[in-house]
Amino acid sequence: MNNHYLLMAAVWLSAISPSMANVPRHPISEQVAQQPIKGVVVGTDGSPIPGASVKSLATNRVTTTNDRGEFTLQAAEGEKLVISFIGYTQQQVTASSSLMKITLSGSSSQLGEVVVVGYGSQTKADVTGALTQLKADNIKQGANISVDNMLQGKVSGVRIAQSSGEPGAGVDVFIRGVGSIRSGSTPLFVVDGVPLSNDNVSAAGPNFGLGSSEPKNPLNFLNTSDIETVTILKDASAAAIYGARGSNGVVLITTKRGNRGGPVLTYDTYIGTSSVIKKMDVLSAAEYRKALVNPAYDHGGNTDWQDVIYRNAFVQNHNLSFAKTSATGSYMASLSHMDQDGIVETSTFKRTTARVNAEESFFDDKRLIVKMNLTASDIQETGIPNGNTAGSDGQLIIHALMANPTRSVYDSAGKYTNFNMNAHYNPAYLLSIYKDKTNTFRVLGNVEASFRILKGLNYRINYGIDKSTSERNSTIYPNVTDRTPTGAYVQNNLSSLTTLLDHYLTYNLSVNKHQVEVLGGFSYQQFKFSGTAFGTQGIAQQGQGVDPEYNPGYSGTPTSPSGYAQENELQSYFGRVNYNYDNRYLFTASLRADGSTRFGKDNKYGYFPSFAVGWTLSQEGFMKDISAVEDLKLRASWGQTGNQEVPNKITQASYSLSPSAGYYLYGDQAVVNGVTVNRTPNPKLKWELVEQYNIGVDFNLWKGKLYGSLEYYNKTTKDPILNIPSEPLSPTTTVWKNVDAQIVNKGFEFMLGTQVINTKNFTWNVDVNGSTLSNTIKDLPVSELYSGSISGPGLSGVNANIYKNGYEAGSFYMLKHLGYDKDGKDIFEDKTGDGVINPNDRQIFQGAIPNFNFGLNSQMRYKKFDLAFSFIGQTGGYLVNNTALDLNINSLASDRNVLAKYYEAKASTANLVQLSTLYLEKSDFIRLNNVRLGYTLSLPQVTWLKSLNIYVSGQNLFTITKYSGYDPLVNTTKTVDGNQSLGVDYATYPSTKTFLLGATVKF
């Protein structure tokens, strides 16, 4: 009987033995030795690699690293583990009971790079939307006050235009064109997970008759040395997770944290000098004397007025930071000070910032992680009388350019020469009587906690505060001009507070070849703004008593104070699903619902969906034998985003009380204030909607010899918000309303890079990016809208921009100048054919928006030397040179200077000043934007010094252009009725050419 059972067992074992041959067998002693093996996987730069595969060769057990690059795997000490990840070279290591640190070196593929996205991060291999991430090493060149300036020429589809070259002045950032007529084109900036408001955080300046000054750039508070990465989300798939604020694109900024390894103390510093990028070609004193019509206008002097107001300006920057990472967390702290003089006398920018980033983990296996980011900045600025709203008599820059070069700065008594002219003054004297000081203090901070509820399921909460206060003291002392001759003082104060609360859950699941990430959350953001203003007229003479900014009650007559307070809220629900099958097929879908108090009761909520797919062809079997193709991915996306950048409460009616609208209660003895309706309510008002689709391809060929991406996009703005004429019987003449018009932006983008040389001693990378843009307005329900107010004598009410169906946004509307006749008289095209040139002969000319922008960037490293340079450029655009309009030929007949080109063309001084294509110039240019040459010293005998890099750099070294103004890359704010202006240059504070000497020391 027993033998029978033994025989049956033998037969059964022999039958199954082939199938069991592949089953791993472990002695009991090995099973006992199994234990949790813990480790972290990082790149060569020390940054964690999430999603890396960790596999035991002995047991085939597999796990993946979390978002901090950490893993835990049951294995026996001494087992062989294989670590792999797309974009990195596979590595085999031996399991150890101590905490393992595995460093993967990157292959020529870039797909393993981790990029920041909204509410999380992804590997580049998993990205389906159009986005670009820049690291600190790619954007740190030069003396940049704000982060938006650092993007110049680095990203296809992104155009940066200066509103002014004044230190700290505003910058216009256009991502994929102009998507709105009056709601602006500024993207949403998110710093360490906190979306910033696009509202001003510094006070504007008053108008003392020389134009009002614009508020400063709200991004000035960030120390650019603290920035780790900048990610630009361009298409709707990438930006839709930000819903109602993502229509103009999103810029995600992350700041530096402690890297793995020992503590590091870093000191960055540079000093340098700046000068005007070029001088305007006006007549010299000798040329002016030859050109004079009236000899009385020769005052005997010889003055270059541009040299009088411009100077060689000094800049210095110091940044000290220290960072460390421990087994449970990390921290980074920095302190910086920047001091930059403007190239115009008396203008300065000073900023002191302090920053702390900290991260710590708690409980078992880092179940709870708490992060804190805190930035505090104090900015002190002094400005000049150079407002862009100045009338026909201009402001400082115009007065310097039109000043007669035969005049002297000082008279025989050593005082400033009095020109004794209306609407024209000694520019040096203007600087001496004007004081403008702005102090802005801003604190941005947030605390984020992440708690692992279950394996793969994490809850995060993010609480942020953005608080700023600004005080601007502006004074014009009693003077001999007709610009506020008795003097005046105004103090403008502005305060803002933004609070943010985010809750969201993320769930990650990996089953065989399937990887799924689900995100769902809630966000609440509140915005509070308030401002006050008061002032004094008829103040004491300069130098007498206490300056009014310190004692405004010392002298003069107080003006009526004013103030305002506003509050709005944004409540949002959002979700996203990412699906990856076998690293080949990718799918992303997101939806955000935004509720805003800015909109009417009928449309409190807007809904913003997006979808995207990706196909990694290089992972397919039929591509494996094509050695030239290392990475190849196709992408397609569609989505909708919104634009809510409109004034608060415009959906509600507004009323005011005034005697002018009142009536007499008792005969003529008392007036009862009457009620005036200022705004017609519209409860149906809703967001501007931007719908966009994108098709792209990413590739890496011949092991990095050629890599890059190609994109086609079509971006359409629907339901734009306009302040248009109201219906009959409405209480006001205009009403805020969504109209059925469309603004269409479409084009191609490319980024091509090559690793020219890659040896131990010599590496050289070059990349070039470019983008085309076609912009068209469709279905506008009104015949046209205007903007771009022109300044100049006799030009009050003249506008340069027109918004009209079938044309691009901000097209130009003016007379067509054909040249001069034999007497130097202007010849214009008679469009109407009536023989008389009048406003009806104006024509539309397109080109306010350049149709092609490009950038070229190169980085070389030879042994201990490093060299980087970049070019930027644009074509297909035009600028209205409003500065030249003020320097027209008839200035020779009024004791003023002119541009040399008008005199050389033999134009008649009797020509009327009219807006025409004579002042419409191409804005095409190519510029050597930056050059940096560095050398890293090796001092092995100094054990406490890790590295020392010394460098020299130059910015804006030369520009090739036919534009006669200071800078073709400019966009002066000249709005009309809130409609944004495009392609106007009016006496802008010039850009600068800068040379720096700097050093980076690590201890």
From TrEMBL:
It is a multi-pass membrane protein. Residues 1-21 form the signal peptide. Residues 519-957 form the TonB-dependent receptor-like beta-barrel domain. GO terms for cellular component: cell outer membrane. Its main location: membrane. It holds the Pfam family CarbopepD_reg_2. Residues 124-250 form the TonB-dependent receptor plug domain. NCBIfam families: OMP_RagA_SusC (TIGR04056), SusC_RagA_signa (TIGR04057). This is SusC/RagA family TonB-linked outer membrane protein.
